[in-house]
Design brief:
73% helix, mainly alpha, elongated, Ferritin
Amino acid sequence: MSDISRDYDKKKVVDILKKIFELEMAGVIRYTHYALMIFGSNRLPLVEFFREQAKESLNHADLAGEHITGLGGHPPINPISIKESNKHEINDILKETLQHEKNAISIYYELLSSVEDKVVYLEEYARQMIGQEELHSLEVEKMLKN
């Protein structure tokens, strides 16, 4: 890292970025699965929503991977275990989606606390991702309301 960055635990930051990478890659699989499992009258807009979420998760994973390799790390190739509830009602899928988004927010906050006032580009990245994930959570919460 350049001399202008303040001291930070680079290994810890790379480990957090690896968790982000794994979670976002799991999101690609999760959201693609959800898009395939939607049935009923709201199918088309929900399929489109989940396919967009899958694409965004792939973009987020790619960005996290770039940060990992930029810091000299190696993005993990073995995916994290993705638990499936085998519940495919729309509300169940949306509840799982909300939990996934909250997990992402938590990990991005973990990154932010590790780089805040130390590495500006990673701080800005973490804040941007937190903002996006919090907006997604709000949207899913609205979708869950009757």
